[in-house]
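In response to the reviewer comment on reproducibility (Comment 2.3), we provide here a single inverse folding case reported in full, input and output, so that an independent group could reproduce the run without further information from us. The structure tokens appear first.
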């Protein structure tokens, strides 16, 4: 069979390993597996939201409300915008896909940092577009502007804060990029971890409302991280109505399940749960920073719910990830990004104890 040429150049997305795999491969009891690999909320799903999901189980035979009015309206009220400025996707991932399909063709290029969320590249390559990267792996406005002036890329991806690095471009720097590009270039502000960044430093916070004054910017948010609903697959995009109308042409009908919709609507009322999640995170993140300093490990100050540890030889991220996996501790190896580094999602105090207890002997062995 002859597949599209564009597929040649695409490597499969490597997701965080599931708990089931560790149970199967190493015979570890599921309750002893600690998963700190996919940036999920360690407090789980808020009990009130879990109840709403169960209540909706008996209505699973009905198609969901395809207008998604209640969720759009909830988001519109939360952000002080209009519901016509919102699009809902099966995760914000799906909105990234709608964007690439709406805008890109093989003559186009897209621009992103050297190391950032892998799906930007995958969706762009599916459309045959060329990938341009800034020289640094943290976001630098001047590098974006210089590359933009040279390549005139059709889409610019700003991952604020950045996965899998953890750095955060300030709002002032992001606006510098936005102001420097022409109106026929789309700037994607991916705020998958914005709740964490704005909790830590207001200089990093970009609100959907303030980007609406730019006709060529879209803000992406998700229920998968701070909101604790990764398994429900709900994300949103916010942009001016004309842009939303265009990318909505790529949306299949009923792209979100009725259970996911109900869960996301309920999650918007969970301010207390989010506050508790952010407070736990801030308190536990410090432990990872202190551990790194004490053991002379370099790390990137994190504005997200994970931390990236960078190793020097002879420490090797692949060996460390594998050794931890055998003990039932799942983290993310960043070797596929060309880094001798690991990314650890900040867990509960108990989960983090497990990580430190398993990791420390690996450092000492050398
Ligand atoms: C997790 C993540 C997303 C989207 O996740 P969904 O579960 O598809 O909503 C988008 N961007 C970044 C940078 C992420 O880390």
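Designed residues, in position order:
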């Amino acid at each position: 069979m002859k597949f599209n040429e564009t597929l040649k150049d695409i490597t499969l997305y490597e997701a965080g390993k599931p708990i089931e795999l560790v149970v199967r491969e190493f015979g570890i009891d599921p309750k002893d597996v600690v998963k700190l690999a996919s940036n999920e909320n360690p407090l789980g799903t808020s009990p009130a939201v879990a109840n709403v999901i169960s209540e909706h189980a008996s209505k699973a035979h009905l198609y969901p409300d395809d207008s998604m009015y209640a969720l759009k309206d909830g988001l519109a009220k939360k952000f002080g915008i209009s519901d016509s400025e919102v699009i809902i996707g099966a995760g914000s991932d799906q909105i990234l896909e709608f964007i690439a399909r709406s805008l890109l063709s093989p003559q186009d290029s897209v621009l992103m940092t050297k190391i950032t969320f892998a799906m930007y590249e995958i969706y762009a390559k599916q459309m045959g577009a060329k990938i341009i990267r800034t020289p640094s792996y943290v976001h630098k406005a001047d590098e974006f502007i210089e590359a933009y002036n040279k390549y005139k890329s059709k889409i610019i991806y700003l991952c604020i804060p950045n996965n899998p690095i953890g750095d955060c471009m300030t709002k002032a720097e992001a606006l510098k990029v936005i102001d420097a590009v022409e109106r026929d270039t789309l700037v994607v502000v991916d705020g998958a971890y914005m709740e964490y960044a704005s909790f830590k430093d207001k200089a990093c916070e970009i609100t959907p409302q303030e980007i609406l004054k730019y006709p060529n910017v879209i803000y992406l948010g998700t229920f998968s991280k701070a909101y604790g609903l990764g398994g429900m697959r709900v994300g949103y995009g916010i942009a001016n109505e004309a842009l939303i109308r265009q990318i909505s042409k790529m949306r299949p009908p009923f792209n979100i399940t009725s259970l996911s919709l109900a869960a996301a609507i309920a999650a918007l009322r969970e301010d207390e749960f989010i506050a508790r999640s952010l407070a736990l995170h801030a308190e536990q993140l410090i432990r990872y920073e202190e551990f790194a300093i004490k053991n002379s490990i370099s790390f990137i100050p994190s504005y997200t719910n994970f931390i990236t540890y960078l190793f020097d030889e002879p420490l090797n991220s692949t060996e460390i990830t594998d050794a931890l996996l055998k003990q039932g501790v799942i983290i993310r190896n960043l070797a596929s990004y060309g880094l001798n580094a690991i990314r650890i999602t900040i867990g509960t105090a108990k989960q983090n104890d497990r990580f430190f207890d398993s990791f420390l002997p690996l450092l000492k062995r050398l």
